[in-house]
Amino acid sequence: MYCRYCGAELKPEAKFCTSCGMKIQPFGKAEEEKAEQPKTEQTGVAAGAEAAKAAAPKAEQPEPAAKTPPEEKKPEGGKSKKGLLLIPLFLLLAGLGVGVGIFIGSRQGGGKESDPFAKRETRESSETSAEGSGESTAAADASESGADGDGEAAEREEKFVLADENTELGALQRSIATLNSEAAAGQRIAINEIKHSVGVRNPGESWNSDVFYTLEGYENRPGYVNKNLCRLEQKQLINADTGNLIDYTVYINPNDGVANKIVAIEYLVSGGLQVTEYYYDANRMPRFVYQYLIDNYVAGYAVPDKAGERFLFGSDTLLTWRAVRDGGFKWNCAANGSEAERLRKSWPANTIFLYQNENADMRRAFDERESIMLNAAYNTYETVMNAQNLTGISGYAYDEQGQGVENARVLLYRSEDRKLLYEGKTDADGRYRIVVPGESRQYELRLVKAPYRSCEIYGINVDSEQLAAYQTPVYFLPRGGAATDYRLRLGDALHYNESGSGMRTVFASVINVRAGINNRTGRIVSTAQTDGSGVASVKLRPGVYTVELVADGYETVYDTLVARSDGETEREFFAAPTVGSGQVSIVLTWGAVPADLDSHLFTQRGAESSHVWFGGKVDSFGNDLDVDDVSSYGPETVTIKQFSAQDYYKYCVVDFTNSVYNNFQSYELSNSGATVQVYTDQGLAATYHVPTNRPGVVWEIFEIRNGRITPIQRYYNYASTQDWWMHD
């Protein structure tokens, strides 16, 4: 007699399995009726929305679901830059939890002493929670998601309990429910609404450059700071006139709390971007506006050779309207003689028009632009600064064939006490998105779909600098299945082997495996050491795991492994050598397709800038593209060897394979499992993984300013004019 859940041999007349703890039932016996299912909901708008209106929503039961896609195998032999082969990588590469803004030199927060989900109580009947406490209970069998590798228990219902609205927990639950019930509507901005009157022109006034030049690092003026020293916030609004999404990056002066610069990045229907950069003085009055069209946004400033229109303001009046066209054509129209004289001294080679000398049509156009841009500046400041900081936690759930799993339960917990905050659902494509307040907090997710294994995601950090927190995909695997031997190998992310045919082998001192994604400190379900050839063997049941690889002289690696009984059984990971003081190492890995992803690091130091990529692997600032792979999988490694908190850095990844063929709508980068890990001298500082199931070839990942790593996570599917990633 054997257990129908875990397959363990049972004693005669046994009522409970000693391996998994499940009640014994004869095979073929029908399962008990489940609680009624929730109404159909939009992505991320689920039971939690109703929780804002009811003290205790009805419990919901999981529904049947599916499995995980086969990962691709690469032939033996290793790899190198431009055509060298890589040691086999068999499973889908996926990142750990999205890293968020953290200071260089401080290690990412580390999780809990044991698997939190393994501690939740398992009951034979429907779960209940402490009355009014909001504490959740779930399937706590230690083997769920492969926790112990031996037995399994069926999923148990988890009841959401709404805490008292006067408690911090209750307030957070209601806030998240409200955000997700209104997420489809979004926050809107009426940019062009005329609410402010133009000031009276002063014929003796000329433009004050203090805020612009100080923010851009050219000068030091009292009251302002370099933008790299500003506190950042990111917000997203909807243009009320066009319906387009607009991302806003806000630079707040740490001394007085005034936003001296706001960058608006509007996603146009054409696929391009309209960028508007607003500069405000200490009195929150607009001083400078720079507007231009571009394929993808690279932080910079309005240097004279950059195309676009500039609007220089003073006392709520337009002092100069400047246009710079591609090809270098420039002109200025000054409002008065004093401003015209200043322009002649600053830009003697440019054409200068004086407002009073122009015809009526030109003056009318000047007046109209003055009112439009002045109101746009004020409306932007007022609306953006009053808008709520929000972060979208999103990802996908797939079955074994790589198809999206619909109506999987997505349970959101706060990490500090493992309280259940909200429940969402995956949509028809398997996508989920839960909007949370953009404030410093750590969350966990648990995705459930009966009759398959649930999967947990740990250590999801969000804060006010982050619009999106993309999670590595979750895979629903069938319960049961025999344990399979997996061969794990660790490679050097920086040094090739002696033959140049691949990366140097690293002999890991220990390899730990834990259930779930980004589970760095939970219960270890399997452990191993590498043999004389650098290979370690572990036995795992089907499930999703976090692999921790430790080796002397190398940074500790955490990565995701999807184990399937009929899948590939070998996997290679890559470790960066221990990062020295004052250095930063950035390691990119991905799957079999596309063949060539490229790393790009931009650095700005004062007025100087540099770009490290395959067309220029070393710059004058001490940055280096150490490893450049073109034959799938990676690694591709960039090292900042002389890191300075005063410098600005930006890192992005480009799909070279599809860019060279102008295939800008390709999904290959998005579905490549690309992962970027950032290491400092304090260890792993941040991990990012590519947004899933989106067309595009440019992934703009993070920036470092004032020594702080800040996620950007923009993804571009329009790149027809900028070719800096393809040519020298």
> What spatial order of strands do you see in the largest sheet?
2-3-4-5-6-7-8-9-10-11
Helix content: under 10%
- Helix count equals 6
Mean pLDDT: 80
Distance between the termini: 70 Å
What kind of sheet is the major sheet?
10 strands, mixed
Rg of Cα set: 28 Å
- Overall structural class, as computed from helix and strand content, comes to mainly beta
The strand count comes to: 37
* Poorly predicted spans: 1-8, 15-101, 106-154, 724-728
Approximate strand percentage? 25-35%
General shape: globular
Could you describe the 3D structure shown?
- By secondary structure, this protein is mainly beta.
- Helices cover 9% and strands 34% of the residues.
- It is built from six helices and 37 strands.
- The strands form seven sheets. It has a ten-stranded mixed sheet with strand order 2-3-4-5-6-7-8-9-10-11, sandwiched between helices. The protein has a six-stranded antiparallel sheet with strand order 1-37-36-33-29-30. Strands 31-32-28-34-35 form a five-stranded antiparallel sheet, with no helix packed on it.
- Helix 4 links the parallel strand 10 (330-334) and strand 11.
